[in-house]
TrEMBL record:
Residues in Creatinase N-terminal domain copies: 8-133
Protein name according to UniProt: Xaa-Pro aminopeptidase
Molecular function GO labels: aminopeptidase activity; metalloexopeptidase activity
SUPFAM superfamilies for this protein: Creatinase/aminopeptidase, Creatinase/prolidase N-terminal domain
Every Peptidase M24 domain range: 141-343
InterPro entries: Creatin/AminoP/Spt16_N, Creatinase/aminopeptidase-like, Creatinase_N, Pept_M24, Pept_M24_MAP, Peptidase_M24B
Pfam families xrefs: Creatinase_N, Peptidase_M24
Organism in which the protein naturally occurs: Pseudoalteromonas byunsanensis
UniProtKB keywords: Aminopeptidase, Hydrolase, Protease
């Protein structure tokens, strides 16, 4: 693991040098974890040409020493030393960048008051761009998370019956993932019946399942901080003509996009391939906005796959492909998979079957 974190830190320092930035203050917890290995919060990372300082306090000091790589861990006494004073003592000369998207105004104002004679520069997206290309260890973590989710879903589907509630199934799914070794849930599980399945990010309720209801489940597991994200949609019993058409169209839209996935393909084009199928079936007013996103330490991270994002896929991207159709007062269908982009195509990381009908 030492070599993995050393390589990441060296790559960031090369990027900083190219932008004529000498030091970098990192505030985002996921970015700190990516560069140091430390999985807690209440920490700050200072990257300099010669050293990496992980600043925390007595609550996390021993844990930070155990988890971090290639870092000198600093235990700050919060009662006697402000964060700005601590950084000032450690900061060498030169231009200092800061992880601007993840620091609050009050925290930055306090730090800046101690660095009045230091040239500072906001840095946006630098670490995230590096994180977009997953190494083998990261990919394996997402694979393990996806495998946990696959097994948990299969177990949960055995408990589907008339009268079961959304909350009951969602709770069982979350419990099973944790029992199988997930660090937690990738995000609050979305599990919705009938017309509520048309809520793209609805919250499980006490609604009960009935015959011919749609059942949409969007969920994920976590391994070493890396998340999976999968959606499957089912119908409980024989589908109506409209339900079957929705499912077949969404599945065709996903397959149309997947057929074009490989390194060098533009994200806008993938989005267009999916939309073309959905729109030609008459769902242009009911289709979800955006086809997918990167997934890793963040649930949603670079690259984003939509009609506006300029990004060319690269080998090592882990992305979701998740077209959806949402008809108010009737229901929604979404099918989502995590895939690893390769030079010649892609590899599925989520492998749960995409069958539609759940027998009563």
């Amino acid at each position: 693991m030492n070599a993995i974190y050393l390589r990441r830190q060296q790559q960031i320092k090369q990027q900083l040098k190219a932008q004529e930035i000498d030091n970098l203050l990192v505030f985002g917890f996921e970015n700190i974890r990516y560069l140091s290995g430390f999985s807690g919060n209440a920490a700050y990372l200072l990257v300099t040409p010669q050293n990496n300082y992980l600043i925390t306090d007595y609550r996390y000091f021993e844990r930070a020493k155990d988890e971090s790589y290639q870092c000198e861990v600093i235990c700050r006494d919060r009662d006697t030393q402000t964060l700005g004073e601590c950084i000032k003592q450690l900061l060498p000369a030169g231009v200092t960048g800061f992880d601007a998207a993840y620091v609050t105004v009050p925290v930055w104002q306090e730090i800046r008051s101690q660095l009045q004679h230091v040239q500072v520069s906001p840095v946006l997206g630098l670490i995230e761009a590096q994180r977009a290309i997953k190494d083998e260890w990261e990919t394996n973590c997402i694979k393990k998370a996806a495998a946990i989710a696959d097994i948990a879903l299969a177990d949960m589907l055995n408990q589907v019956s008339v009268g079961v509630t959304e909350k009951e199934l969602a709770t069982e799914l979350d419990y099973k993932m944790k029992k199988l070794g997930s660090d937690g849930v990738s995000f609050e599980t979305i599990l919705l019946f009938a017309k509520r399945s048309a809520l793209p990010h609805g919250k499980p309720s006490d609604a009960k399942l009935n015959h011919q209801d749609l059942l949409l489940v969007d969920f994920g597991a976590v391994v070493n901080g890396y998340r999976s994200d999968m959606t499957r949609t089912y119908v409980f019993g024989e589908p109506t003509t409209v339900q079957q058409q929705m499912f077949d169209t969404v599945l065709s839209a996903q397959q149309a996009a997947l057929a074009k996935v490989k390194a060098g393909v533009d994200c806008k084009y993938l989005n267009h391939c999916s939309d073309e199928v959905l729109f030609s079936a008459g769902y242009q007013d009911y289709a979800g906005k955006g086809l997918g996103h990167g997934v890793g330490l963040f649930l949603h991270e670079v690259p984003f796959i939509n009609s506006k994002t300029d990004y060319t896929l690269r080998a090592g991207n882990v992305i979701t492909i998740e077209p959806g159709v949402y008809l108010p007062h009737l229901g929604g269908v979404r099918i989502e998979d995590d895939i690893l982009v390769t030079e010649t195509g892609f590899e599925y990381l989520t492998n749960a079957p995409k069958s539609f009908i759940l027998p009563c």
